[in-house]
Every structure is written in structure tokens, then in C-alpha cells.
Amino acid sequence: MNILILGATGRVGGQIVTHALHDSHHVTVLVRTPEKIQIVNENLTIIQGNVLNKDDIIRAMHGIDFIISALNTDGTTTLSESMSYIIEAMENKGIQRIITVGTAGILQSRVTPNVLRYQSIESKRKSVSAAEEHFKVYDMLRQSNLEWTIVCPTYLPDGERIGKYRIEHKFLPDGGNKISVSDTAEFTFSQIKSSDNLKVRVGIAY
């Protein structure tokens, strides 16, 4: 398959690239700084560009079957601004499937299920700006005609792949308080072969 991976220089995105190449897919990455990609592989195409440039997004999607976005917020509105371009380009090119990495903050609260975790006492973060950005992305995908999945990890330390974790639709698995970058990347990549989690937020934790 031809997979476009956004956020490929990040912690999760970089490992997703490795998974996809190991599985013999053709991978395209759109990055501002190509030098940050240390992988040399004949199945890897590196496009220099910016997700906030509509033309760059359109160019990167040429011949693409699947999109995986591990973009983070960067403390700005990059996430939500770029997603509007991504959705528009996907719809124009007839690309249906997108998997994104979100945050557990946009899952439903177990304490108060009619609100989101970042809006409830479950949230331990002082700032909610990142969660608000991820929620905007969720809202845009929800209103689109795309086949989307949002993987919602909680605290994301680096660490070895364990390969055993719990997932739950719309909620963080009960008592879950962390999930490694490695396991998050593995699960996110696995969604290109799965139709079990279409149009849902998936909480993931140990």
C-alpha cells in the first residue's frame, strides 16, 4: 500500500514509519526538515513541505491509499488548521481512510460521561489547549465522510514495546495511566488492516 505519514519526525510518527517500511509498504512523509529523517529505504519518499500549505498537502497525497497522522499541537493551532486541508484533499482525491493519534483528554469522562476527560476532574493537566486542538480535529473528522480512527493514548513515556495493552471505544480503559510510545505506534499502524475501530475514538493504556 501507499501510505502518507504526517508527523514522521515525532516520537510516535517516527516509529510508525519504521513499522510501515518493515511491512514493505511504500511510505511518503511530508516534513519541514528532511534531514531529521535518518532512514534510508527505497520504499521511502521524503517530501519537503509544510502541513499548513494546502498545495504541499495535495502534492503529498498523490497516489496515496491510506493516511496516518501523528502530528502534535506544537502549542499552536497547527493541528486543527492542517486537518481542514487534509480532509479537503482526501475528499477531492477519493482517499477514504485516515488514522490519527489524539489524546486521552478527548475521550469521555468515566466520572461524568456526558463530558470529555479534559473537561472533567479526571484531567491532571493545567493547560487544556492541546486537548482543545485535538477535540477540534475529532469534531472535523466526525463531520466528514471519511473512515477515520483516532487513537487516544494517555501518558506517553518512551520505552520498550510490550505488545499487551487494553483498548476501549470512547473511554480510557479503567485504571489505565500510561502506554509507551512503542506500543502506541504499533497499535496505530495496525489499524490500516483493521475495520474494528472505524469512526471511533479508541482509548489505549496498559
Helix-strand blueprint:
Blueprint lengths: L1 E5 L4 H12 L3 E6 L12 E5 L5 H7 L5 E4 L8 H16 L3 E5 L27 H15 L3 E7 L12 E4 L11 H10 L9 E6 L1
Parallel strand pairs: 1-2, 1-4, 2-3, 4-5, 5-6, 6-8
Antiparallel strand pairs: 7-8
Can you give me a brief rundown of this structure?
By secondary structure, this protein is α/β, with parallel strands linked by helices. The chain has helices at residues 11-22, 54-60, 78-93, 129-143, 181-190, and strands at residues 2-6, 26-31, 44-48, 66-69, 97-101, 147-153, 166-169, 200-205. Strands 3-2-1-4-5-6-8-7 form an 8-stranded mixed sheet, sandwiched between helices.
Task: Describe the protein's architecture and organization.
This protein has 206 residues and is an alpha/beta fold. The chain has five helices and eight strands, in the order βαββαβαβαββαβ. Helix 1 links the parallel strand 1 and strand 2. The radius of gyration is 16 Å and the shape is globular. The mean pLDDT is 96.
Helical stretch tally: 5
| Termini gap | 30 Å
Structural class: alpha/beta
| Oligomer class | single chain
Overall geometric form: globular
Query: Residue-averaged pLDDT, rounded?
Result: 96
Order of helices and strands: EHEEHEHEHEEHE
Q: Biggest β-sheet: count, sense, barrel?
A: 8 strands, mixed
Radius of gyration: 16 Å
Give the spatial strand order of the biggest sheet. 3-2-1-4-5-6-8-7
Features:
single chain; 29% helix; alpha/beta; globular
